[in-house]
Design goal:
There is one protein chain. Helices cover 27% and strands 17% of the residues. By secondary structure, it is of the alpha/beta class. The chain has one domain (18-149): Alpha-Beta Complex (Ribosomal Protein L13p, Chain: A). Helix 1 crosses helix 4 (102-111) and helix 3 (94-100) crosses helix 4 (102-111).
């Protein structure tokens, strides 16, 4: 048995193969969609996944205005922020946040599933969310991904 062939391959910035993929959010549940998108952004579906390297794909999410939230989350779920001043805590319900910007619900959900460090910030830059089917990345020839086949 030749043990020299059993070497662990660690990816780096030069050897990573990054693809462009499209995910359709039409009638998808928010949490399930976000976890699958986070896996694609992180690169955990690839055989050469390396935890400290950006080896994920560039993900385009279309039809964010047709996302589903289960149960009473449209009225009960709150998005909380703080202005930085005393007594400056503000909150919006999910329906108010959706009416203000439908893309932000998916962006906030996916960002919460990424690492809380510089790598997570760089991974988040590879996410592009659009409220309809029009996007500006036709030149990259993105492939459509079926979310049921993503681990």
């Amino acid at each position: 048995m030749d043990t020299i062939s059993f070497k662990t391959i660690s990816a780096n910035k030069k050897t990573v193969n990054k693809n462009w993929v499209i995910v359709d959010a039409d009638s998808q549940n928010l949490g399930r969609l976000s976890s699958k998108v986070a896996i694609l952004l992180r690169g955990k579906h690839k055989p050469n996944f390396t935890p400290h390297v950006d080896c994920g794909d560039n993900v385009i999410v279309i039809n964010s205005s047709k996302i589903n939230l289960s149960g009473n989350k449209w009225t009960q779920k709150e998005y909380i922020r703080h202005t930085g001043y005393p007594g400056g805590q503000r909150s919006l319900s999910a329906i108010e946040q959706f009416n203000k910007n439908p893309n932000s619900i998916i962006e906030k959900s996916v960002k919460g599933m990424l690492p809380k460090n510089k790598l997570g910030a760089n991974l988040f830059r590879n996410l592009y969310v659009y409220s309809d089917t029009n996007h500006k990345f036709e030149a990259q020839k993105p492939a459509t991904v079926d979310l049921n086949k993503v681990n």
